[in-house]
Write a structure and sequence with these properties.
Distance between the termini: 29 Å
Order of helices and strands: EEEHEEHEHHHHEHEHEEHH
CATH architecture of one domain: 3-Layer(aba) Sandwich
Strand order of the largest sheet: 6-7-8-3-9-10
CATH superfamily of one domain: P-loop containing nucleotide triphosphate hydrolases
Number of strands: 10
Largest sheet: 6 strands, mixed
Shape: globular
Length: 233
């Protein structure tokens, strides 16, 4: 289980997260919803060690993550797919996957399992990542993260700008990871695309987790979506 307790994070002198707390459990999808600038991406970066936590704690299976560098957070079993994918554009598909494998010392069997989820990548192993389509790049970013065999997976806007068929594939992969016991924390603006796969929703506003509830409760309270996200159910 990942437990975040009363964390504060800043960019320079500007405070972005304010005493934010939440938990993510194995075998669930926790969706973070909120308006642009609410602090959702900063929260994922804080978990990953990319933004320093000035106060509070982040504990994963009894291990403190909040003072670790990003490389050590990844080695502990936290995978991260950032917004914009952040691939190594000049490296091939195979080389990008190899970077994921090296993080925790996994081999070809792990790579093959990741490729089985995104078969199109298997046909492009020698192709440079920067020449892939947007959907293929998103597949590669997710496959690279899965090469860590993560216990927790952080996904930041994974469906942004994708065609419906690719969105469906990503949803299927997330559901499969849930069934395998992975805890997924998902940031996504496309509310309609994620409520059907989420178990709980945490509404983030002004750097705070205002309300966290089962997705069934969210469906019964469309006013919450309007208030926190600005969209209807």
């Amino acid at each position: 289980m990942l437990t975040i307790q009363n964390i504060d994070c800043f960019y320079g002198d500007v405070q972005v997260l304010r005493s934010l707390s939440l938990e993510a459990h194995g075998g669930e999808v926790l969706c973070l919803l909120g308006r642009n600038g609410a602090g959702k991406t900063t929260l994922l970066k804080a978990i990953m060690g990319l933004v320093r936590v000035r106060a509070g704690t982040i504990i994963f299976d009894g291990q403190a993550l909040h003072n670790l560098p990003a490389s050590e957070v990844a080695r502990s079993g936290v995978g991260y797919v950032p917004q914009g994918r952040r691939l190594f554009a000049e490296l091939t598909v195979a080389e990008n996957l190899e970077i994921g494998l090296m993080t925790r010392g996994h081999g070809v069997e792990t790579r093959d399992r990741a490729l089985a989820l995104f078969p199109a990548l298997g046909e492009r192993l020698r192709q440079r990542a920067g020449t892939l389509s947007g959907g293929e790049q998103q597949m590669l970013a997710m496959a690279r993260a899965l090469c860590l065999e993560p216990t927790v997976l952080l996904l930041d806007e994974p469906m942004e700008g994708l065609m419906p068929a690719m969105i469906s594939r990503i949803r299927e992969v997330v559901v499969g990871l849930k069934e395998a016991g992975v805890a997924t924390i998902l940031v996504e603006q496309r509310v309609d695309a994620v409520l059907s796969i989420a178990d709980r929703v945490s509404f983030i506003e002004n750097g705070r987790s205002r309300e966290t509830m089962r997705v069934e409760e969210v469906r019964e309270r469309p006013d919450l979506l309007q208030h926190y996200v600005g969209v209807g159910a």
